[in-house]
Amino acid sequence: MLTIEYEQSLIETTVFLAIRNDERLECELHQVVDNLYEIPDEEIRQGEFVPVFREFFTKLGFDRLIAGLLSERPLLSELIDRCVVREAPRKKAQSAELLIQEKIDTDSCVSKTLIIQICPHSFLETDDISAMDSPRIRLVNLMRRELLHVADMLDNQFGYVRETFTGDPSRQNIQRDRYRILWDTYVEGRLERDKFGVDGKKQKLAQDFGRVFSTNNERVFASIFDAQSLTHCNFMDWVHEPDLLRNSRLASCQNAVSKAFA
Q1: For the chain, how many helices (H) and strands (E)?
Q2: What is the pLDDT of residue 185?
Q3: What angle, 0 to 180 degrees and rounded to 10, lies between the N-to-C axes of helices 218-225 and 249-260?
Q4: pTM of the model
Q5: How confident is the model at residue 110, as a pLDDT?
Q6: What angle do helix axes 169-193 and 201-213 make, rounded to 10 degrees?
Q7: How far apart are CA 101 and CA 252, in angstroms?
């Protein structure tokens, strides 16, 4: 079973944020930690804080968020060696990234570590539990997309390879944008079919798709959004030769299906 390792500073900040409006929990925490400040040795004192805050973190249920998201993608637990959850320096830095390192003196040639960065406040619910735009809900939606990207990277059928885009800086940026939009569209389509779609996301992707591929052809976008299985090689071909996408069998099949059900 994959062990999730939480950075201590993330745990402590999240707990402090969670209890600041709960007098009972705040008193309960201080009853334990206040005595620890009397320990003269700083190293020993800091070590004693660790299990206390981890216990509160678990008690408040924050450890279940990432565990639940990972359970939606079994491939991650099967192929990842470690999962480390760190504090994100800012909201826009919240992410999930795959770190692959060569191993030395072991049977396995590489080590795969999932690095997740989260802002402490993103663990928290709002006072209004019906709110659909709380930091926690936004985090869940973001992480579902991030983790599906990582799952694709680990999937041999997808065949992800880190590529170097060519040409002048402007051309490289265009190629990166095309690749990103293709992959995001493929991810969002699967999330929507899994009932994890987000209102307005499909429309925004369609606009971005039309911009980077200079087409308003809905069937071309739909061919990616509704695709069951695509690969890194597909994306790279379409990045470099957009006409291949517009004339692809994938788009033609999608158009035929649309007409059949019209």
Answers
A1: 12, 4
A2: 97
A3: 100
A4: 0.87
A5: 84
A6: 150
A7: 41
- CA distances to 47, 69, 145 from 119, rounded to whole Å, are 23, 16, 17
What's the one-letter identity of residue 229? S
What are the 10-residue block averages of pLDDT along the chain, 262 residues in total?
A: 93 94 89 84 85 93 95 95 96 95 70 96 70 80 97 97 90 95 98 94 95 87 95 95 80 44 34
- The closest of 261, 258, 259, 260 to 226, measured between CA atoms, is 258
Return the exposure string of 73-89: e unless at least 16 CB atoms fall within 10 Å of the residue's CB, then b: beebeebbbebebebbe
CA of residue 179 relative to chain centroid, distance = 17
CA 174, CA 192: separation in Å to the nearest integer? 27
Q: How far apart are CA 47 and CA 49, in angstroms?
A: 5
**Distance, CA of 171 to CA of 158 (rounded, Å):** 25
Give me 93's structure tokens. Answer: 């830095």
Q: Tell me the C-alpha distance between 55 and 65, whole Å.
A: 15
- DSSP output for 33-64: HGGGGG-S-HHHHHHHHHHHHHHHHHHTTTHH
pLDDT value for 129: 46
Angle between helices 23-33 and 42-59 (to 10 degrees): 150
Q: 246 CB contacts (<8 Å, ≥6 apart)?
A: 213, 215, 217, 220
Q: Which residues pair with 84 in a beta bridge?
A: 5, 115
CA–CA separation, 154 vs 149, rounded Å?
A: 9
Task: Tell me the C-alpha distance between 137 and 160, whole Å.
Answer: 29
